[in-house]
Amino acid sequence: DQTGVFATGGSGTSTGNYLTGFYPGSGASTEFRSFFTFDLTSVAGPITSAQFNVAFTTASGPSPVTLNLVLYSGNISTLDSGGAGTAGFAGLASGTLLGSATVSTSATGTLGITLNAAALASIQAAEGGNFAIGGSLVGTPPTDYLFAASSGSPLTELVLNGTAVPEPSSMLLMACGLMGIAGAARRRLLA
Q1: Residue 83 vs residues 5, 154, 173: alpha-carbon distances, Å
Q2: Tally of helices (H runs) and strands (E runs) in the chain
Q3: CA neighbor of 31 nearest in space, from 39, 20, 42, 41
Q4: Given phi > 0 = left and psi -120 to 50 = alpha, else beta, which region is 82?
Q5: What is the pLDDT of residue 189?
Q6: Which residues lie closer than 8 Å to 148 by C-beta, 6 or more apart?
Q7: Predicted confidence (pLDDT) per residue in 1-42, tens digit
Q8: Cβ neighbour number for residue 173 with a 10 Å cutoff
């Protein structure tokens, strides 16, 4: 799993910082968009719900701000290496909407965002591989930001809940039991 940030000009880094918005001192026109990548190689089976959790760090601006999470559909390895450029920056805000939250810039603790049906379908499609989420602030003035000083932050997680899929041997055992019950019921009817 990786976290990182890309700026307006396409420069990016995966140092763990996931600054999102407009950070003072970086130029009034410089926007930062965050990314979060997750390894889903061990995920299998139907996903019934998902939540994205992220630790709050330094934020600023008039409250509240809206954080949009989108599906990043570009090359995830290139994103993780910081080489996705301006296309990567654009992709962190233009993908399919997975969820959003309106939050206070004075919030502390953990932000949990329940992901939507499009997210569940995207996660399901990414099973056995990697999955990337882009984050951007929408409709905010060029002074608002979230997650500054987030390098080394202890929490960015994707919590998945699924439906257990029975093992083939369990299915066979259940089928045999049902056949036995059906046979006993038939014998009673014939008797």
Answers
A1: 11, 25, 52
A2: 4, 12
A3: 20
A4: left
A5: 64
A6: 19, 23, 57, 58, 59, 60
A7: 788 888 888 888 887 788 899 887 765 668 999 999 999 999
A8: 12
Query: Most distant CA pair in the chain: distance in Å?
Result: 89
Which helix (H) or strand (E) covers residue 33, if one does?
strand 32-39
The DSSP string of 82-143 is T--HHHHHHHHHHS-EEEEEEE-TT--SEEEEE--HHHHHHHHHHTTSEEEEEEEEES--TT
Parts of the chain with a pLDDT under 70: 26-29, 152-154, 163-191
CA–CA separation, 172 vs 168, rounded Å? Answer: 6
Tally of CB atoms within 10 A around 109: 8
Contact 92, 137 (CB under 8 A): no
Token pair in block for residue 45: 């089976």
